[in-house]
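User: Let's play a game. I give you a shape written as tokens, and you guess the letters that built it. Ready? Here's round one.
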């Protein structure tokens, strides 16, 4: 009798163990599938970049492009880079890009964090409606807005100036949304305690909000720098003075004028993206962390 009872009680235990083992195997299979998909995606993204670098170091690419893409130059040479550096005012282009990117990013961080703080912790009539209107701007493509923006720059007599490259982008719906989501997760008790101690809104913003928004500000810094450094379309509209060309815009114009010299054109592209690529590699974890934390509280 005792033997039959022990056998019957052991059956559910065995079934549970089998079910847990099958669940673990299924989870492992899911992880393997996800890993394979991610590897394929990484290869698809990295392969064109690697092909660009390999071709930029090939002198023969200026004569005839290889029909089958190669990931190592058959004749390694820095000739294409020497041509690009010799024929182009790269120092001036880099200086313009640094000025535009730095000032635009600083303005973007200031206005995004300030308006994000107002929408997250402020109390005023119509806050929800205004925030929804702000979010609708994210649905309007830049190609729709660029003509009115261009007309505005002309009417303000700001064409062919740093201001034309900076002012239209020192504020935006995405930055405000990102900062609002992050600031919403900051406890209200901290702000209320500061107000009780006599701190005004500017003091709260500068001494409490900004120090606690490090990850979100870092993520927004990298994203804004990427956008402004890689921008070509807007400078094409508002800049005609060669002394104001940014690095990506100037090299894009130079690459077009080089015609069939593919190796030199790809070398100029590599030169243009190198600084921002280094910035992204060092700060990519802040992008991931900042965007993940903004989703903790809606």
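Assistant: Ready! My guess for every position:
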């Amino acid at each position: 009798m005792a033997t039959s009872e022990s056998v019957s009680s052991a059956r559910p235990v065995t079934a549970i163990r089998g079910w847990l083992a099958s669940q673990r195997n299924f989870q492992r299979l899911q992880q393997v599938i996800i890993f394979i998909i991610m590897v394929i995606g990484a290869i698809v993204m990295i392969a064109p970049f690697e092909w660009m670098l390999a071709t930029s170091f090939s002198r023969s690419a200026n004569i005839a492009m290889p029909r089958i893409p190669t990931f190592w130059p058959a004749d390694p040479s820095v000739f294409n880079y020497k041509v690009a550096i010799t024929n182009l005012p790269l120092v001036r282009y880099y200086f313009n890009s640094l000025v535009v990117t730095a000032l635009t990013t600083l303005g973007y961080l200031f206005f995004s964090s300030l308006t994000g703080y107002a929408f997250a912790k402020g109390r005023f009539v119509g806050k929800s409606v205004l925030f929804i209107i702000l979010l609708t701007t994210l649905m309007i493509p830049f190609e729709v807005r660029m003509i009115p923006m261009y007309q505005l720059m002309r009417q303000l007599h700001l064409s062919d100036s740093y201001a034309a490259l900076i002012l239209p982008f020192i504020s935006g719906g995405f930055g405000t949304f990102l900062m609002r989501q992050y600031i919403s997760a900051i406890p209200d008790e901290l702000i209320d305690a500061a107000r009780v101690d006599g701190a005004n809104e500017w003091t709260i913003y500068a001494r409490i909000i900004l120090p606690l928004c490090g990850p979100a500000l870092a993520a927004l810094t990298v994203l804004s720098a990427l956008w402004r450094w890689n921008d070509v379309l807007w400078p094409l509209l508002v800049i005609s003075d060669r002394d104001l060309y940014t690095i990506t815009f100037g090299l894009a114009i130079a690459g077009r004028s080089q015609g069939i010299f593919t190796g030199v054109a790809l070398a100029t592209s590599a030169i243009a993206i190198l600084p921002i690529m280094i910035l992204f590699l060092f700060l990519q974890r802040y992008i991931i962390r900042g965007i993940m934390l903004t989703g903790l509280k809606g």
